[in-house]
Amino acid sequence: MITHRRRERAIAVALTGLAGYVDALGFMTLGGYFIAFMSGNTTRLGVGAVRSVSTAVVPAAVIILFVLGVVGGSLVNHRVGAHRRAVVMGLVTLLLALSGVCQRVDFFWGAIVCMALAMGAENTVFERNGEVSLGVTYMTGTLVKLGQRLTSVLLGGDRWAWAWYFLLWVGLLAGTVLGSLAYLHFALDSLWFAVALGVGLTGLLLWWAPASD
What we know:
Blueprint: H1 6-30, H2 38-51, H3 53-79, H4 84-104, H5 108-122, E1 127-128, E2 131-132, H6 140-154, H7 162-186, H8 191-208
Helix pairs in contact: 1-5, 1-7, 1-8, 2-3, 3-4, 3-5, 4-5, 4-8, 6-7
């Protein structure tokens, strides 16, 4: 996180907000399964496999779709030169828009598929040498780094390096709250707010962060 430029960090916080927003929509739609948080789905998969195989099907399917989304985003990163971050973000936005279209035509599972693919691809927006340099849909690692940076403060290190990790967590939390509120009023039609944010982030990535690393 702290090795990225400040404007890239700001975009990463917005991406975590988008992930939290979409994850809340998925969680409320699927009745307790996640669209972006695969650690939670892995737990649901394990528990479901023991209690009832049928309850393991949804988390298993979402995990597979998420991984396929990561593969798609990584392939774009490898095949596109400059502005690859914006192109990946454009792919995420397109998938979210397709999800919204599926919702409008009452193709429920099509919407879920596109949401899961989008969340996998979103994690590859910031990629270096084939590895994700900024994960935006999972917070366990971020909270670990937050704790390490706070420890560094106690030992006389940089007093503010922890703040960006905290903001990543706040971004996800804020997105989840907004997604939950939107779902209560608009159900899955709330996806179009996510599409609008995706369009804005694609534009910012074109302008601010063309991806030279």
